[in-house]
Amino acid sequence: MKVSSKGEYALRALILLGNSQGSVLSIQEISDKTLVSIHYLEQILLQLKKMGYVTSKRGVKGGYMLHKKAAEIHLGEVIRDLEGPLSPMACASITKYEPCPLEEGCQLKPLWSLIRDTIAYVLERTTLEDLLENRILLQKGEDFVVVKRTS
């Protein structure tokens, strides 16, 4: 799995909109604060709108705002919707599996599956709210990331 600029910019926009919960932000404001061109941002926000993550308001004071609560936006879903499967290889994908002629007895497939499962585990359990509340922590001396919730 590789997160493209589209995926990163979409997450940047969602974070900005989440931090401005309840306020409508113009595309110019979003562009200025995320450093994404208006043209590219229009395409991304249109996709996010079609997927139900954001809504738009027309007019002079128009712009974008979150359509869902930040706690309801799971990063795994956003990334899958924008980028496709989380698996690094098609032979290990659950949603877009493609057979490989070397698959039988392949000693790499368990690695690709572990990577897929690890990525999915973290992204599916992480919400936009977790990012907004700075709950993503790298544990000192550990090799994994933890989402800390107070509830």
TrEMBL record:
Keywords: DNA-binding. It comes from Neobacillus thermocopriae. PROSITE patterns: HTH_RRF2_1, HTH_RRF2_2. GO terms for cellular component: cytosol. Pfam families: Rrf2. GO terms for molecular function: DNA binding; DNA-binding transcription factor activity. SUPFAM superfamilies: Winged helix' DNA-binding domain (SSF46785). This is Rrf2 family transcriptional regulator.
